[in-house]
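Readers outside the structure-tokenisation community will struggle with the description of the input data as it stands. I therefore recommend that a typical entry be quoted early in the introduction. An entry of this sort, consisting of the sequence and the corresponding backbone structure tokens, reads as follows:
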Amino acid sequence: MTPQQARRSREEVECALVEAAIRVLERDGASALSTRQVAQEAQVNPGLVHRYFGSMAALSARVLDELAARIAAQVGTGVEFSAGSALDCYARVLTHTIVSGRDPRALQAENPLADRLVGLLRDRAGLGIAEAQVCAAQILTLYLGWAVFGEFAAHSAQVEADRDALVESLRQAAIDLAVADTQRASGSGSRSRSSSEPETPESPER
């Protein structure tokens, strides 16, 4: 460690470790996320990972918080679905956590992505809090499932559409969820799509 690195504050080192963990995820995937790899990427002593976070699980929780915040900032303007994107990394950390036998609910006390979706569904689709929460959970499941299993599912179903068309269909599926929940909440399921379709909470980038 250089003298300049030694003078970095705790906050700076923590941020460096979180950013390093995200870079490892983007480049090598969740299975490569280890104390040694993260420390090497951040150019710090491996002991600092445990000194500042206590465990890799705690660091993973901070990484999830950061990724969720980044995705939340994209909601409404265009969520990126490409490999190595914030959504891709977020989904893979969650998947790795579940496969490792840990409870992912214990990793995030709050979720800015879910909060953002709930807020948009209430504001733009006019859903009540309970309906918005259910719809947000459905959209999260749709997007996280696509991030992990989308290519496999498209191949298995012999889908010939290109990636842009598939992402557009995903956006439309999110709209359909919001429309269906809006109609159920209002009790007016007979309304036509043209007159009742709310503004989508998402508009994924192509």
